[in-house]
Write a structure and sequence with these properties.
35% helix; 2,3-Dihydroxybiphenyl 1,2-Dioxygenase, domain 1; 622 residues; 9-stranded mixed sheet; TIM Barrel; homodimer; 20 helices; 3 domains; isomerase activity (chains A, B); alpha/beta; isomerase (chains A, B)
Amino acid sequence: MKHSIATVSLSGMLPEKLRAIAAAGFDGVEIFENDLLYYEGSPADVKSICQDLGLEIFLFQPFRDFEGMPRERLTKNLHRAEKKFELMHELGVDRMLLCSNVQNNCIKDDTMIMDDLYAIAEKAALHNIKVGYEALAWGAHVNSYRHAWSLVKEIDHPNLGMILDSFHTLSIKDDLTELAYIPKEKIFFVQLADAPLMKMDVLEWSRHFRCFPGQGQFNLQYFLAPILVAGYEGPLSLEIFNDEFRAAPTEQTACYARRSLLYLEELTRNHLQYNYITAHQSLFSPAPVAQYESVAFLEFAVDESARTELNHWFEQLGFQKTGQHKSKDVSLYQQGDINLVLNSEPDSFAQHYYAIHGPSLCASAFKVSNAEQALTRAKQYGCHTYEGRLGPKEQFIPAILAPDGSLQYFLDNAADIHQTDFFSKPNDQVAYLNSIDHFAIGIPPETMDIWTLHFKSIFGFVTEHELTLADPYGLMKSKVVRSIDSTVRIPLNISENKHTSIARSFTAYRGSGLQHVAFSTKDIFETVAKLQENNLKLLKIPENYYEDLSAKFDLDEQFLNKLQAHNLLYDEDEKGGAMLHVYSEIFGNRFFFEILQRFNGYSQYGANNTPVRLTAQRAANN
Amino acid sequence: MKHSIATVSLSGMLPEKLRAIAAAGFDGVEIFENDLLYYEGSPADVKSICQDLGLEIFLFQPFRDFEGMPRERLTKNLHRAEKKFELMHELGVDRMLLCSNVQNNCIKDDTMIMDDLYAIAEKAALHNIKVGYEALAWGAHVNSYRHAWSLVKEIDHPNLGMILDSFHTLSIKDDLTELAYIPKEKIFFVQLADAPLMKMDVLEWSRHFRCFPGQGQFNLQYFLAPILVAGYEGPLSLEIFNDEFRAAPTEQTACYARRSLLYLEELTRNHLQYNYITAHQSLFSPAPVAQYESVAFLEFAVDESARTELNHWFEQLGFQKTGQHKSKDVSLYQQGDINLVLNSEPDSFAQHYYAIHGPSLCASAFKVSNAEQALTRAKQYGCHTYEGRLGPKEQFIPAILAPDGSLQYFLDNAADIHQTDFFSKPNDQVAYLNSIDHFAIGIPPETMDIWTLHFKSIFGFVTEHELTLADPYGLMKSKVVRSIDSTVRIPLNISENKHTSIARSFTAYRGSGLQHVAFSTKDIFETVAKLQENNLKLLKIPENYYEDLSAKFDLDEQFLNKLQAHNLLYDEDEKGGAMLHVYSEIFGNRFFFEILQRFNGYSQYGANNTPVRLTAQRAANN
């Protein structure tokens, strides 16, 4: 389907916005009136910029507070409308958004409102303009599409139709069934916005917290499906008021905006198929999501000195160096199902990454059911791919760029890099650590929505509820993205404050970076004893924490003493699950390691213990 | 009265918080449990730190989810309470905050809840602990102080009393009259928090948006007065959950926290006196607010080159250099009632300010009814004063430090620095500009509450409603502080985003700084013609803006053409007032000048035109 976006959804000056919109592959735009008003060029200039960029202007918006005003204002309002119709001709757009009146003095009389709407439709007809009426969720009288449609239907004027907006409909939890019964020629335009569910004033919610489809908590496919069933074939358009996007890099926002529409198309197609309704032919249909089985390996960019140091940490953690790359300065460490890679190959991707970010996670690799399929899907979604240089007999591993420019590899059973690319030896040590339970990334706060859309659209992952957690110097928020069956789990951490641990690691990394890797074990006491024997430095937990545990939970004193002796943290969930976990000290103000054991299906991440961990880390590192 | 603050109100590690609290002059603290749990020392260590700092521990908090739980939990909960009582003994505190149960499975039965409260009171008696019961606004069953009091009164146990919290009471708009009838021995503690009025979930509101008394929109004196009438003589304690404070500099936050309690005491004293109730003897009673008559002068820190350049701008604006300081490198510019000062005196406050901030406003001076009184009041509020070095026969001008370290002078009729300190000549030019209408300061976003409290407490100013305005690269917010009769008006501007105009000027200033000075004129067309004749560069306003004006307002075409020819902006308010205003270009990416004329009592600041101004400025400066 055709894709459109309102200029208000992006930051920047109007020409900059239009260039980014065209570059992201949109077919056209809604011109938000203020963007035009504040622009130094004429409407004809804007028309010509759009033509040069291959963008159609689908809509001019908004026209406000028109219908049901005290009678003396009607003539003025019609005059105002005509002025805008003239401007629209210069712009080369034939569709205007008229939003329902929000003024206190709006007269709540359907007959009068219909008279007014008829009057503007007649004026619009003279100018060959189509006026789309949109019910705002906070409209003074008309605040649902159903009310708006009852008026538009009754008026039945060819120049008056409906503009349907997902936010205004889903925010008031309106009944969606009538959407399917609006004749397609009466649907003048469709605007799409997602949003996180929030208990707040709907106007504030709408003005500041809308986001792209897939980034919020609305089920937008339930909104779009009946509109497509009604036969709508016009553009799908994004109208997003969002404080972060207003300040975010224009081109990147436009790119993810476009991807969000593809994602919504796919969701809607699936939803229609699930309900045995023939899907709209033109709906985006990428390769299905591959199955994500595990984290295949994590690759660290290092220099000589960091390699030596991390090699030492890995050994203390019980890893064995089991492979040396045949042609590159790359080593492989192994324990249980865990593979870690240290890369210090000159002039490689890793070393370019190191030059910017220092010792850091430069690539994460995922074991998938079908790597080619995963890559195809990513490409179809417009994701950038990466192809490194290959040595003789080396295997090609499909890779894409994550939002921060690090690599994400897809490996399937066909790939056995240990055999092809490495001189390998078997691991002959006992494995205390078994697998990567999760790994957490610290990202800039304004990129959270981009990252979640990346994992949802390309990987088919789901997100868990965002948590807010106390750092001694501010707040952090954490949102987990994970594969549906939890085989891969990645907490994404952000902080808006300047002096939190995450903010400190941002500074060290100059951008986003690994926060920690959590390894699972099958006997945490034995494992921790072994790690202590290896002199791995564990984060010291204050005694007061254990006093509180004894007040909070039914734990016997002997057990508590054992926890304390091992610096182990304890958490329970509401379903009777429990977790024991322990942290290493921090590697160079950057990342650290966690060792954990889950009991009785505990499915959380020990977030209750995050504040004590953050405070203890600060005490240790100040 | 005694002053206290909960440790959760500040950022940092526990000892750091306690040191800041003592330094700010508090008498004691509430220990927030998590601060203790995460601390590496023992409760006895905390007790001894407090003793060394001269701080009393008034309260241990919170104890949660105790009463009305399913019966099998009661024993566990009492066990938990006893553990905490033991810990409290180590801490040396005899009062615990028990907040009303918020769990879904809380049994909504007053009789059962009273049994449970009686049980904990009995246990507390054994440990010589007093349990204060506090109704949380989102309590599952008990959510008002009146409900809590009906239970506590009925139980009538000496170890069970009330904790009254302004947020939980005022957020639900509860009736305050019963507060005066709680016997003083039953009021175990009083917690105070202000908040901006927000339409949102009360729990979220409470957890993230509380602020210090005087910084929000609650009338805290209406809450505190009846409690004092009841005879309460215990500490006034701040319990503030605020995302900004959690990340703000600990010492500065503690300082303003203390000042907010003094301010609340003054407000409460006035409120009681107004109602013919004898005020609590110990309530803070500073010198009354002086009357603020005008901005006496604005002083710019400059070097040679900025002095030359600004001298030129001032001349273009129609100012005349009318004075040269007798002993310092300081010149005075004058027009109408406006005085501007350029200071490049070596080794002066201005030059130290210049060294950090570059060309900037280093001092603002206010004409007051009584300068000594204004200074006394500021001192009583703990404000830092400043005394510069004086030359022979020079006058001493009382000055205090603003929150950003710039100076604020108080001048009254006794002061005539023009005569004493300057070689002056009379201004022989026609005055086109008459007075300083307002001057706006850009400040770091986390300091907005500090600035407003500064102006409210020291100056007795009021604040206007905060506005959110669109910059092409993000949002800015603006809140006006002004004298009651609007003789002095200062918009405070903030932006959370990195690339807005305000953020850009922050970078230039390395901190807060002047955004613009608005001069009023009595004939704006004549004035602008004169300024254009003087070659003052005005900000060019796009033509589209005037097209829109003609659609929006009843303005004839000739008038509109005249506006456009002068780059004048137009605004109307709802009461029929109007304003015409024009902007200069920006001086070195820092500040600019506005010339305005108000009609028919227009009392706003043309904020409707701020977005077009910001966009035009960006277009001119990119």
